[in-house]
Predict the 3D structure of the following.
Amino acid sequence: MRIDRSRPAVRTGLKFASRIALIVALGIASGTLASLAAVGFVELVAVLNEWFLISPRSRFIVDNEPLLLVATVGVPAAGGLVVGLIHRAVPGGRSHGPADIIQSVQTMDGRIPVRTGFLSAAAGIVSLGAGASVGQYGPLAHLGATLGSLVARVNRDNRWIATVGVGCGVAAVISTAFNAPIAGIIFAHEVILRHYSLRAFAPITIAATMGHVMANVVFKRPPLFRVEAITVNFAPEFLGFILVGMVGSLIAVIYMHAILQANRISRQLPVAECLKPMLAGALLGLAAIWLPDILGIGKETLRFAVIDHAFVPGELAFLLVAKILATALCIGFGFAGGVFSPALLIGILFGALAGNGAELVFGDLRSDLAIYAICGMVSVTSAVIGAPLTTILIVFELTRNYDLATAAMVSVVVSNMVSYRLFGRSLFDVQLGMRGFDLSVGREKAVLDRRFIECYVTQDYTGFAPDVSLAEAESHLLRTRRHEGYVVDADGAYLGTVKLGDLVARRQDGGTESGATVARVAQPEPLILTARTSVWQAMAEMGDFVGESIPVLEDFDNRRMLGVVFEASIVKAYLDTLKDIRHEENAGA
Amino acid sequence: MPDLLKVARQMQSGPVRAAISALCIVMSWSNAEAGPSADGSTGRAITVATWGGPYQYSQEKAYFEPFTKMSGIDINIDRYDGGLAELRRQVGNSETNGWDLVDMTMADNRAACKQGLLERIDHGILPPAPDGTQAEQDFIDGALTECGVSQIVYAMIIAYNRDAFPGDRPTRIEDLFDLERFPGARSLQKGPEANLEWALRSYGVPREDLYQSLSTRRGLWLAFERLEDIREHVRWWTSVSTPLELLVSGEVTMASVYNGRAFDAAVIQGHPVEIIWDAQIYELGAWGIPKGTRNLDEALEFIRFATGTQPLADQTKYIPYGPARRSSMKLVSTHAETGMDIRQHLPTYPVHFGTAILKDTEWYASLHDRIKVRFDRWLTRQ
């Protein structure tokens, strides 16, 4: 039977089927690719840690004190040098991370530069492999986003494909790394996309599932975290979890400020940019001679912190401060890496400390130390990455324990509220704000700030050479039924505007000298835009504008006139953008 | 014969060629070497050091007897109880007609190899699987090392006396350290192996992270703290048969034993012995050839035969240790004496294997003396 493609119902059906196929294919392809990359990334870091005497096991086996000393200082320093050199090849001179993904997606661009993406991943692997005190999930998420964006390039017709592809990559990576598919889905929406459209949700869910399949079935990777069955024994302890959330958010704020401050110090340092990570690595190594726990992700310390009496409170507090300083130093001075894994460790140390405190209050009634440790962990991490739902789900998926997830939930929301007031939505948002990209006033500003007026410029205006007489100008304007004419010299430079009303008034006053030209009476408009004025800026400046159209110059130096924009075009651009955003955020399958 | 070899050479490669080559090798033995004497004895003999008990019996049945029948090489058995001390003595003393082969744990094999106590073994001599799969692919991961060829997967488990716990029965490794719920003396091996892993695992440290965690000062400290809890109640064993004797006689309620011996006590001898499979510590056993043996060729011949697909599968008829070749696993069937399905008694049986800990033999080989010293220091501390 032949399909009659001209019939509307068939056409709609085919279009629908191809759309569904595209969404599923996007999810499967980006999910598989990102998940494989995540497994490779994590394995490679583990191997490097073993080779370069960073992992406790390799250090324990070596039993050669001088060699160990040299490695402890030399490996992070050498790693720092390599990272510094890699960064010289990256546009902007730094590795990209979650903040850059957010920026790309929120501006509806969705493209992650491949070169930057892979170089950032390489810098991340070297940093983590050399034992820098940085996290692995930031580089992983960016690698996932790069691959998702790459897959989405097969279809350039739909702009939304790019952003959804990025979301898929990120979700798959988080799903693989934490072995928590639901958390991966939520992370992509809560932190990256910041909306929950069905069109994005479907492929992202498929991608996260692929990640889960890869992690669980194909590679059989062990879960990041295991907590045995524990319960909350005593209802008043929930008050304790609230308190943990409050104090946890303060620790998160201190941690984030420390990172930003270290970055400021690094910028003022009169040292070549590419040598700064090496400097940080050497300092870290020196400290690690006494305190090897601060090297790398510190997974072993993470394990021990949930064990009752593995640490005395003094040790917990000391390690907490040391880890904050070490991480601020490494990230601030340009190592490539995330902020999440160190936050896990800092949070769990704080939580264990809180658990010790709770023992003084509740005595034997206190629940297992692990509950407090995990509440502390999630309250710090969720404030840092600005993702309460994701954090709660990670706990739930990793432990499958309702009691624990409920306790964690309380700490998380309290922490997020406090840190939002004191610091901002997340470290990523604050970093973006410092780069002039402020998401706190709504997404439309972010998008309109990235759309430039040059797209709306029209040549539909009346131009006069400077030597045109006033009478000619008046009659021309009357003939064309316009109110304004723009005086432009032979080089195309804008000299000023003449208004029909002025010309008529001048003639009636009899003040028109014979031979007077438009060049003499033209007045520059009070509002002039350039090609690189953003739509948002134009909207703001247009507030008092009453004219017909606004002249647009190439720039203020050469004053070359490109054309004009109409107020209506700018308003339309604004409305279109709002519509695009609403459409993206509410799109069905 | 020559024709067959010619056929094999003409083939480019692949399973058939490998099979024919293997056939030729076997035939050449039976023709040339086993030929001289009518009763099958060539007067040649090798000395194999192994562990005694039901394990040795299984080896006699599956390896030694068929090997002697096939090659005419007699096998003298000597007793080996693990460790490197006796091996070092054997290698150092060229006067005695010492060991030609020793059946050792993979950790000891690696350590001995590092210290130059063992001959290197070329894995190229090993025959392929019946379906032609090359030996390197047929053996499970980690089974072939510089100086070792594995034959079995065995596990150290905690066994308990059923009669001691009429109510609640221990099921998890934490229960080993829980003297309140499960009172009574324990019998553990006098050494760090398995004890440290179990101690740290009992805190909930995931099995994948055990050795990384034991490599930190705090991890080691935590493990010894946990052992400290039961120290007063432990009777330390050094000979592998001791813990079962103590368990069966009721002198201890729980003991660490190799799973094959626990099977023997429970199933063959009918003692009330049960296994806690949780956190079983599995390891590979491997053949090693002491350095400088006078019978190197015979020893290699033995390894080539005894680690073949069929002998490895045959061993499971006598003792529940998992074969080190994948191709052998398919041939595993019933226990020779009881006729019961042996698969569910193997450490690698999926139900038991979910929480199994792979012994990090590299870790032990590198730390061998240091970690032992550390353990002894703890043991003698009052």
